[in-house]
Amino acid sequence: MAGNISNQPGRLARAAKHVSPLHLLAGIGVTIVGMTLVTPFAFQTLGDNAFIALTIPAGLLTLAATDLAGRAPQKHALWLVFGCAIILRGYLLLFDPLLSSDIYRYVWDGRVQAAGINPFRYFPADETLAFLRDGAIFPHINRADTAVTIYPPVAQFFFLLVTRLGENVTVMRLALLGCEAVTVTLIMLLLQRTNRPVTRVVAYLWHPLPLWEIANNGHVDALMVALMMLGLWIALTGRALLGAVVIALSILVKPYVAPALAGIWRPWDLKMPLVVIAVIALCYLPYLSVGWDVLGFLTKGYLTEQGISAGNDLWLLSLWRVVFGEHQGDVVAYVVLAALVLVFKGLSVARRSDRATVCRLADINMLLLVALLLLSPNYPWYFLAITPFVALCGSAPTWVVSIGALLLSEQLDWDFYIPRMVTKSILFGGLLLALAFTALRSRMQRMSDEGLSR
């Protein structure tokens, strides 16, 4: 009897080897769907820690699914991947946004513009806008009495266009899912271009980060990612200047994808930066009636609120302060050093002689990871910029950060709160370890190749 029991794990392992990758992929898909079905109720009952406890394992299962999808029959695997992706997104549309109320501001900004009013002029709670208030959107707007809009012009154009179809959260989320469809199409085109299995798109489609932050919370970052990917596709197919224009538009949704421009720029080509500056100026032009206030809440409170002005939430600076203490001017010094690091890294990427698509995508992925490390965002949706690269590059650092970003779903509203410094240390410490592991493995591979060539 004891011998039979001790042999059981070995038998299960041998049996698993005989299960087809497609069947294993289907099992993972069913598991992810099941976990997603219970997550809204777990969140409403037990809070954000229950959400994290369910979504991080779902991310790890997506990592396993990516390997299996590459070995499964392509046609059947794609039907399975897209079938589950549609079910997951359709289900999450049934629930009001769970983790963020930003989408209500999107609808409000579109409504304000439709009334012929500059969204950078008034707080939502300003009495001038009282005639636009309703019971469905206005009560849910965050910072309604303290902040004008923070969102740049291209985001504002999008809000205006979408709200002409319907001034509600569902229409806005459907429009953002349309942006996501563009991203998915471009991921598949780039996978084909780099001779990788298109079934790797499962890495994006089943990943819990875009699933929750777009289908449920409805973040405009979906538009930013779609424009960034479109710009990269255009540039990588030989039209770099036009690609830069589209990436400039993505920066005017949210600016933290700006490092991607370095991946398509050739050093000392002045046309591209001049074109980017021109695009930004033209897009801001319709809103300049408020002068410098066009920068919205960004310069009047957001940097302070996010702990950037004081340096409290800049992870690397916080670690420095733990060891060496806080000093006057250390935030300015950190910002200057961070900018220099990004410029140096960007120039090194731009000057690379290897312009193959695979290398350029890997370089852009790394630039975005470095930017996220230095900026240390407080919210998980800021990490959506790297989610296409889990399918395109699949590097350990990208998986670590995209899954680890779910830890930032922690909120102060619940009784059991993990300090942000702890969650960021897990997230960015994991990134640094993954980078070190990747560099070590690459070095060992080179040494092995050199040994074989002798």
TrEMBL record:
Higher taxonomy: Bacteria, Pseudomonadati, Pseudomonadota, Alphaproteobacteria, Hyphomicrobiales
Gene Ontology CC: plasma membrane
UniProtKB keywords: Membrane, Transmembrane, Transmembrane helix
One function term, GO molecular function aspect: hexosyltransferase activity
Pfam families the UniProt entry points to: MptA_B_family (PF26314)
Organism from which the protein derives: Bradyrhizobium icense
UniProt name for this protein: DUF2029 domain-containing protein
Stretches that traverse the bilayer: 21-43, 49-70, 77-95, 171-191, 240-262, 274-292, 331-350, 381-409, 421-440
